[in-house]
Structure formats: C-alpha cells, structure tokens
Write a structure and sequence with these properties.
heterodimer, A: alpha/beta, TIM Barrel, six-stranded parallel beta sheet, globular, B: alpha/beta, 4 domains, five-stranded mixed beta sheet, elongated, deaminated base DNA N-glycosylase activity (chain B), metal ion binding (chain B), iron (chain B), hydrolase (chain B), Ura-DNA_glyco_family4 (chain B)
Chain lengths: ~425, ~475
C-alpha cells in the first residue's frame, strides 16, 4: 500500500470520481441519530451541501477506494493502461474522512466506488467493509451509496444492500457493440446479472417484511433508496434512441430509481479514438428531459422519438415541445377541462403546475391571469392552451411556431 | 407591536385574542405607531373569547412565515387568518392574492431553512470524555433558527454543538437543546483542522471541462459564500479551468503504462466452442454466451435447463419470464408456481425432472416499470433448437412433455396445434415419447373460474399420464 499523505490520496481519488454523474442522496428511509446516539440522519429529501463551479451539487463524499484497476476501459481515466497517478485508501481512512466531513456538515454521506483490484469479489468486499464499519462501529446514520462491482458474488451484493441506502451498477455504454469495443473486460450480461441480483435482493426483503410474524422484529431493509446506473453519452456512436431504449429496458427490468446520463468528458491521457471535444452538455440535458417524460409524463419512447430526427433528440428545443410541434392536432388543450394526462403533454407545464391547475379549477374557472400564478411559463404555453379568456387561434398551427422557441442559430452552434 | 419579532407563540396569542374579539384586520396595527387597536392593554382583546378554529395547515404555514423579516408579515398573516376563519376553502384558492403571497413567503422561508441545513459549517472546539464539540456561525436570511435546530439535533445527536446567528443561538449539550441570544462571528473558531481536506476534495471533484457558473450560483447564492470555507477556491478554480482543459486536449496520448502487464493478471474466460461442450454444466455456460439471435441483447441472462442428467422425463416450456430471467432458473415465477402445484398433484417429483424452455432468453416489451412477455417467433424458436437438442442429447429422456405451442415447435420443429396433438402419446425420432399439453401460464390468464378449474384438471391429467408412461 502506498504511503502517500491523506491529502494527496484524497486529491487523486476524488479527482478520479468526478466523472460519475450521480450524487443524489434522496429517496431513502427516514432515519436519525436520536435512538442510536450516534451521528447521522436521512429525512427522505437529500441536501446539496455545496456546488462546484461545474454547476453540479456536492451532497456526498464521492471517492474511489482506489484508482488502481485491472480493467482497461478506454473511456476511463483509471484504466490499467492509463498513466494517471495511483493511490489507495484503507477502509478505515475512508471511514475517518466520512465522519470528519459529516460532523462538520459538509456532506450527507458517502458515495464509494472503486477501481477493480485483485478480483471483483475482493473489491466488493472492501467496499462493503467501509459501509460495515460506518454502520456497525460508528452507528453512522447518514446516506451511503455503494457502487456494486459487476460480477461480484450475489452474496456480497446482498450484504452491501443491508448497509447501503443505494446501490448502483454502471452500464457505461448504451449498446453491446459500444461496450465490447470500449470496455473489453466489461460484459453487458455480467452488469445485468448484478442489477438483477440487486432487484431480487430488494424483492426478497420486501417479501420477508410482508410475511413477518406479528411481534417479530422487522427484517432489515435492503438498499431502501433503490438502485441506479450511469451511461456515458457521446463517447461512442450510440444515438439518443439507443440510449433511451437501454434506459427503458433497465427501468422495467431492474426497477431502477434513476438512470444518470453523463456527458463524456475529455480525460487526460485519453485513448486516441475518443473525442477530445467539449462534453455534449446540451445532449445530456435533453436526455434527462426525455427520461423525465418517460417516468413522470406518461410518454412512450417511440412518442419522444417522433420529435427527434435520425434517432437524435432536437438540441435546440426540449423533447416535449419537439413532440408537440409534430402533433399540433392534439392542441390547443382546454386548461379548464382537459384530463390530467393531456395537461401533462402541454409544453411548459410541469407535473407541479398540472397538479396546481387540477386543484385550482375545482374552485372556479381559470383565466390567463390565474394561470400566471400557477406556472412560471405562461408565455411558452400560450400556443397550446385555451382558457376562459384566451384562445390561440391560428397560433397553434402557425408555421413559425418553432422559431418562436428555438434559440438563434449562433447559440445553437455553441450548444453543439 | 410584537416584543420578539419572529416569535410564533407571541403572534399566535395576540392573533387569537383579536380573532376571538372579532377585531377586523384593518382595525389592527401590528407596528404600534399607527392608529387603531394596539395589541396590549386594549379593550378589544378583553372581549369574550369565542373559540375560532383554523385549518391545521394554515397554522403550520404561519409558524414558518412568521420568521420572515418583512415587517408587514404579522399584519398580513392576521388578515389571512381572519379570512380563513370565515372561508374554510381559502388556502385552496391559490389564485387569491393573499394566498399567493402566503405561499410565496412560505416558499422563501422553506428555501432559507433548506439552505441553512445545507450551508452551516461546524468547526471543532475540542473533545471531552470522548464527546466532541463543535460550533458554527451562520447568517440566515430570515429568523429561522428555531425551525432548523431540531434538524441538527436529530442529525448530530452524538456530539455537542452550537449554532450562533445574529438573532439567536441554539445549543445542544448534555442531550438538551436550548436557545440563547444572538452573537457574533468571532465567537466561533475561524478555521478547522479538516478544512484543508474539504477544500482539497472540493477542488478535485470539480470537472474543469464542464464549467457552469450560473447553475452553481442559482443554488448557492453568493450571500452564503462568506461562511463556506470552500467558496474561497471558486475564483481560482474557475480561472484555471480553461488552461486545464487545454492541457488535457494538447497532451499527446502517452504510451501504455509499463506496469499494465503487472496488473493484468486475469486469465480470459476459457473460450469454449459450442461444439466442444462436454457436460450439462458447460452447456449452461455456453448457452449464457449465446448470441445466435438478438434476444440476448435485452435479457439479463440465458436460462438453461435444470435437473438431473438421468431424468426420465423432460418438461419443456416456452421461454423464461421476468423472474426466471432475474434468477437464472426455469419455472420460478408465477407460471412455475402453477406448474409446481400441478406436478405435486400428479405425483411427480420436480427434482427428478429436467425442466427447460424452448427459448433460452426472455423476450419482452418494456412498459413503464414492467416487462411484458412477448411470444417468441418461430424463427427464434428454431434458432434456439440448437440448445434444446443439445440438452436432449445429454439427458436422453424417455418422455418429453411440451407445455404450450412454442415448446411443441421447439421439440418437433413443426407448428402443430396442441388441440390436435393432445390426449395421445406420440413417438419422436429415436423412440422418445412425447406428450403435448398446455402451458401453465394459460391457466393464469383464464378469467372464468369454472373453465380454469376444468383446464387445470385436464392439465394435471396430462401430467399423470406422463408419470404412468415413464414409470
């Protein structure tokens, strides 16, 4: 083990973790330190304790146990053939760092990942050991997110689920072809099997809780914040349609809480066949919007792709607007009468605004002025709605409707 | 005039008196200097109290909103309470100007509370008898200390701490929460031993290739920066970002690390040609690598047959379902449950059968949070026959029971109807006997209970016939 000072290790192993998009610390069970007299709580909603100048929140201490790795995934800074400086934390060092940061209210908890050393099982054991020490020896009640190592023994995954709030297994690239050419040691079926064992573990824990005898203690929860994954966008030639296809398969197959889309960021000492360009941040953003449409707005993937061209989402306008412009016959929608599902299809209306509209219209017909109090984006919705005092007339079908929303051309060029 | 601005109890008792006395909002001055009834020692307050009930939600919101620094808050709140006492639906009228104001003020408070939960930074004071103590200086926008202190109590039960704000302070010591007067910044240490580590982390987790300053400032407004140790690094990090990305871009790809070979000690999976499979176990591994048709792309894993190699009876189903796909074993889902019960009724021991499917990968259509089973095509069944034939060659059963049409196709290579095949024993090439029956999932789909019972009986009868035939 290297004898580097802790500050140096921290710098190396946090730097190595900065490409992972996930930082959420929400959606878990309520927990506090009152009964345990330890440290740490989770209250359902996570807290972002800081923000980096890249606009991303810092909610967890996101680090790698080590950036040594026997794999050689070409998009990864930690691949075996990379010349990056290496370091390794001991489990105890990570525990101390986590507690020190947590007690000062810098973080909500720990997000621990690792390069693969020795074997998948050995690496997973080390990750689980950190979580075990935190929970059992320090009565730590904060949030713990463990990255599962694809291919690790399901028994280790089951153990990880007992300590962690969330487990995640990255699929990395959306297609089989992409993965086999960029990450030769990573097998899609191994990744899927690991995700399956997380789902099975969660379902078994739920079954055990349901069939518990009265008076017996509740069986332990299994990763109550569920599982998630990450896909890298823009490193290979996958289209948005491929990415969303994979996402829908993962959501349905493994009950994922979230799929994170991470715009491929150029890495130092990159493999020569990777794009040295700026990360496609707008593409990442559009994918998140499309993902939201899938999960909260009742859209099917095929519908979202109606507003796309060549399997790629429109970069200049959001996917819901793109769909609406292709489906003008569905508009305008009467704010005072339309069912919830239809309101959700109006560009500019989010789920919260729709809920407010549905609640408010029970007490009286809505006018445009009322709508302004319920949503921030009245201007955007105008062509698509009817209220007591507003009809869009020819606006809905006007030829230049798209131009009203699309940013000027030079800005579009920047987004690319 | 309220003696302690932001004190909910004081405002509530004043408002309760006024409300009971029937004092209209326009007749009250909460500032004291203007005309109208004053809050203390006034005749209207002494008027007979009539119980006034208010929606619980309104009281909860009022308790938060009273912390707002806007001097108009006590008066506006009273007007809303006055109106709410006469209109139970008031809070639902989101388009009403007062309600709109209330919601916005509440939102501002809740945001401030949230930011305080996030941006308080404790500094260590010391340790005594194994218990550490910490202190923090914080300047919230509104007077929210009492709204936030319980959160810190729940979170940091196992240590002592104090949060000092200009208005008040909260102290958690000896497992007791208490409040005191406001203070100043210099009561709290100006640095902490792990602050260097925290700033190192902050700098390292920042990705210079995706600078988005506006997004950062929207969530972490500058007014909080002076109390955040990491905030002093924002400017230097931003200043160096462009150059860091440029260096990355320019850096030629270096040669592979010479240590690589040392790390790469793993032996690649033994490549086994499908034709060389020698045992059932090897067969299962070979099936799992199958890419003969595109079904493997979405399924979790191939589900090979299961059972003793000496089994006399082989039961062939259609394809793995959701649960089979997850667990990697045949007949463990709902249809498997039905099959298990029917087998038991027919006197067949599942552990002595070889159970498998015509198609080894799960075919499905994702629909929201579920995967809807899709029938395999004849092309897919025929492609997968390669594996079924291999399993048959290993097990060499006396009898094959096919469940459903796909299984029948998989075994015979022909698409015959179950109806025409059922009830008689057929002989396959090589002398193996065949009994064709329905798939147990068919029983799950029948809505008519009487019909389902009949079909189930017939299904069990087929299994009994199989048992007798193989005996």
């Amino acid at each position: 083990m290297s004898a580097k000072p802790i500050l140096e290790k921290l710098s190396i192993l946090a730097d190595a973790a900065k490409y992972d998009a996930s930082c959420a610390s929400s959606g878990t069970v309520k927990r506090d330190s009152v009964a345990s007299k330890g440290i740490g709580s989770t209250e359902g909603m996570g807290i972002c304790h800081s923000y980096a100048p890249d606009g991303r929140c810092i909610s967890l201490l996101k680090i790698l146990l080590t950036n040594f790795c026997v794999y050689d995934c070409r998009f990864c800074i930690n691949r075996a053939s990379s010349n990056v400086e290496r370091a390794r934390f001991s489990p105890q060092e990570v525990v101390t760092l986590t507690l020190d940061f947590y007690k000062r209210n810098y973080i909500e908890g720990l997000f621990l990942s690792s390069g693969i050393i020795r074997s998948e099982d050995y690496t997973m054991e080390q990750l689980v050991e950190v979580a075990r020490i935190l929970r059992e020896e320090h009565r730590f009640g904060g949030y713990i997110h463990l990255k599962t190592i694809a291919g690790a023994d399901p028994a280790l995954i089951a153990l990880a689920g007992l300590y962690a709030d969330r487990l995640s297994t990255n699929v990395e690239l959306p297609t089989e072809a992409g993965l086999s050419s960029f990450a030769p040691e990573k097998k899609p079926e191994t990744i899927r099997k690991t995700m399956a064992s997380v789902r099975v573990g969660a379902e078994e824990a739920i079954d055990a809780a349901k069939s518990r005898l009265i008076g017996k203690a509740m069986p332990p929860r299994f990763a109550p914040a569920g599982q998630s994954t990450q896909m890298i966008v823009g490193a290979d030639a996958s289209r948005d349609d491929d990415i969303l296809k994979t996402a829908t398969n993962l959501y349905s197959g493994y009950q994922l809480r979230r799929v994170y889309y991470s715009a491929y960021s150029p890495i130092p000492d990159a493999s020569s066949d990777l794009p040295p360009v700026r990360p496609p941040l707008m593409r990442e953003h559009r994918l998140y919007q499309a993902d939201w449409l899938l999960r909260f707005y009742g859209f099917e993937r095929a519908e979202i792709m109606e507003g796309a061209s060549g399997g790629m989402l429109d970069l200049s306008i959001d996917p819901k607007l793109a769909w609406a412009l292709m489906r003008r016959e569905a508009f305008p929608v009467d704010i005072n009468r339309a069912p919830r599902e239809l309101l959700l299809r109006v560009p500019g209306l989010g789920t919260k605004a729709v809920d407010r509209i549905v609640a408010a219209r029970r007490l009286g017909k809505l006018r445009l002025g009322d709508l302004a109090k319920l949503t921030a984006s009245v201007k955007k919705v105008l062509p698509f709605i009817v209220t007591l005092d507003w009809r869009p007339g020819k606006l809905t079908d006007s030829a230049d409707l798209r131009a009203r929303f699309a940013p000027p051309a030079e800005q579009l060029a920047l987004a690319l | 005039m309220l003696a302690h601005p932001g004190d909910f109890a004081e405002w509530r008792s004043a408002a309760r008196g006024l409300l009971a006395g029937g004092v209209a909002p326009e007749d009250v001055s909460w500032r004291g200097s203007e005309q109208g009834a004053s809050l203390f020692g006034d005749e209207t307050v002494a008027a007979p109290a009539a119980a006034v009930s208010l929606p619980r939600e309104l009281l909860e919101i009022a308790e938060r909103v009273i912390c707002h620094r806007d001097a108009e808050v006590p008066a506006r709140l009273y007007r809303i309470v006055w109106r709410a006492a006469r209109d139970r639906q008031l809070l639902a009228r989101t388009t009403d100007a007062d309600v709109d104001w209330l919601r916005k003020a509440d939102k501002a408070i809740r945001r401030d509370v949230h930011k305080m939960h996030a941006f308080v930074r404790f500094r260590r004071l010391g340790e005594e008898a194994g218990r550490e103590s910490f202190a923090a200086w914080f300047e919230p926008t509104h007077r929210i200390l009492r709204l936030t202190a319980p959160f810190f109590q729940r979170r940091f039960y196992g240590m002592d701490w104090a949060i000092v704000t200009p208005d008040a302070r909260a102290i958690w010591q000896n497992e007791t929460l208490s409040y005191g007067a406001g203070g100043t910044k210099d009561e709290v240490p100006d640095s902490d031993i792990v602050e260097d580590q925290w700033r190192t982390y902050y700098g390292a987790i920042f990705n210079p290739a995706r600078v988005k300053v506006d997004a950062m400032r929207a969530e972490m407004p500058k007014k909080y920066w002076k109390n955040l140790p990491e905030a002093q690094d924002i400017a230097p990090l931003l200043a160096g970002a462009e150059a860091r990305v440029e260096r990355m871009r320019e850096a030629a790809v270096s040669l592979a690390n010479p240590l690589t070979d040392k790390w790469r000690t793993r032996v690649p999976d033994e490549l086994l040609l499908d034709d060389d499979v020698r045992t059932l176990e090897e067969l299962a591994r070979a099936v799992d690598r199958c890419t003969r048709c595109p079904l493997y792309c979405n399924a979790t894993q191939a589900v090979a047959g299961e059972g003793p190699e000496q089994a006399r009876i082989m039961v062939v189903g259609e394809q793995p379902g959701d649960q089979e796909d997850l667990q990697g074993r045949p007949f463990v889902g709902p249809a498997g449950q039905v099959l298990n019960e029917a087998l038991e009724e027919a006197g067949l021991d599942r552990t002595r059968l070889f159970l498998t499917n015509a198609v080894k990968h799960f075919k499905f259509e994702p629909r929201g949070k579920r995967r809807l089973h899709q029938n395999p095509t004849t092309g897919e069944i025929d492609m997968c026959r390669w594996w079924l034939d291999k399993e048959r060659a290993f097990v060499q059963p006396d009898l094959i029971v096919t469940l459903g049409g796909s299984a029948l196709r998989g075994v015979t290579g022909k698409s015959a109807s179950i109806k025409s095949m059922r009830g008689t024993v057929h002989e396959l090439e090589g002398g193996t006997k065949l009994i064709a029956t329905i798939h147990p999932s068919f029983l799950l789909r029948l809505p008519d209970r009487t019909r389902a019972a009949e079909e189930r009986k017939a299904f069990v009868a087929d299994l009994i016939r199989a048992r007798k035939l193989a005996a």
